[in-house]
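Format notes (please read before filing issues)

Several people have asked whether sequences and structure tokens are stored in separate files. They are not. Every record keeps both together, in the order shown below: the sequence lines, then the token lines. Line labels are part of the format and must not be stripped during preprocessing.
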Amino acid sequence: MRVIFSLFLCLLPSLAWAGLVPAGGGAPGPDLPEPLRSMAAWAFALQRHLTGEMRQNLSVMKETGSWEPAAAIILAAFLYGVFHAVGPGHGKVVIGGWFATRRARITHGLIASLIAAMAQSASAIAVVAALAGIMAFAPKDVMAGAAWIEAASYALITGIGALMVWRTLTGKGCGHDHHHHHGEACCGHHHEEHGHAQHAKTERNALFAVAMAVGFRPCSGAILVLLFTLANGMFLIGMLATFAMGLGVAITVAAIGLGALGLNRLIERRFGAGSLAARLRAGLALAGALAITLLGLIMLVGVAVNGPMLSG
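Then the structure lines:
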């Protein structure tokens, strides 16, 4: 538990700084510690290369009218999503924070990661289709409109996090998946058997709501691809590339989330059952809820200070 809190305290200043200070140019910040900074720099360089590959193949499709480069475009978009999710972004922190501090099922972790990524892809498609396709907004205005949607995502995350804090403090959110036996103590009280299924369903729905809030914000990379394909009459390939990008993001976010879930299970196995384990679960659930709420607030303050600016 000390390791988790130490890691959180180390990352919190960087998260706060990222939320309050405008992004510089898409490159990793100089204050990011090694080896994370080198990994982020490599990931950004690879993303630039993959973006160039997509643009080149899209240009070939426009000039020749052939769909042969489509497979290369979709593959490049998928790989872009995998490595794009490695870089800075609140989605991984929110979902990873949930699984590090709340005992959930592995299948729920995979589904939540997919929901977040697919919702992000759908959000980008909806924004471009509505603002550029129907309302004929200029690309700059489309990005500005998408930035306000990102701000709404931060507000949703803050609200859901605050609800999680309230549920945990009132004993309604224990932070586990209710595999304990009938009458076993949880967060300082006993559950009846008939209430377990409803409680577990509520926790699962809260997780999926967090995933939807994370995915509500569109990705700037996907928007740029969609704007290019829309302008050149290739919006279908842009949509396919966007969903491929989302699938790549889902894989990376799922890996991070499952790693955090494994850490949670490791801590629980170390402390076993009993009152100490119950208090530990409650403490971790509260810490995770507070972290998610605080991160949402930090991002909202960043919007208030700098104005809405869509990140990657």
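For reference, the curators noted about this record: The chain has a mean pLDDT of 77. Residues 226 and 238 are 5 Å apart (CA to CA).
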